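Hi R.,

Here's the chain you asked about this morning:
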Amino acid sequence: MLSKNIETFLSCDKEWEEAGTVLFGAPFDSTTSYRPGSRFGSSAIRRESHGIESYSPYQDKDLEDIAVFDSGDIELPLGDAALSLEQIEERAATILEAGKRPFLLGGEHLVTLGAFRAAFAKYPDIHVLHFDAHADLRDDYLGVQLSHACVLRRCWELCGDGKIFQFGIRSGDREEFRWGKDHVCTHKFDLHGLEERLEQLGDTPVYFTLDLDVLDPSVFPGTGTPEPGGVSFEELRKAVTLVCQRANVVACDVNELSPPYDQSGVSTMVACKIVREMLLALS
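And the predicted structure, written out as tokens:
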């Protein structure tokens, strides 16, 4: 059993025994290739969540009425990606073994690999829904395979062909897109086709990974690798709600908020609202 964090995400202060979903943070950004700072994302989301309401008028639900446990951030060795991933995997495995859903707050996108390893160990037939501006399918980035630019390639090595479905992708090198045609299903530029994909998935176990830079940087400037041309907040809110309501989401994450690059704090509030909507839709 894990201990409750002192500072929790808004209203996520229920007891371990009653919780169906367990939050935890992975403040890691050591492989960030452009602008570091996402290590501060999970704590900012937790802290600033108290600036929004626990009630969602979109869903007519309230976080006060659902059982979510916040186990806090893992203290990670920031210079060691492999060891950090092991510790993330261990935390996610503890949550899964207790019959609960791990909900990871990043951190850079590489942190997904640790949680996905744990989910794959329990659900070998797991599929991945991936919202992102970037394909993240490189075999290596500057000779490094444990990189945020390679995270979905590492996930593919576990789950195999035809089990990764990407949406919103609008950036990557030529080889990523060529390789991806044979191994993953990529919906470029927007979130179209999501409903049909969810119908096809049915009750299949799903890992849902959301890189917030899928949003247009005019909506979400606070990220390490901003890519113009993304989706709106309302498009993303509707899409994550749909995924969390219809898919059999056994584990999920939200990553790549980098608070230092948005002094207004708007990006953090966007992240807080998306996390709230996801938690409510999962309940």
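The first helix runs from residue 41 to 48.

Let me know if you need anything else.
M.
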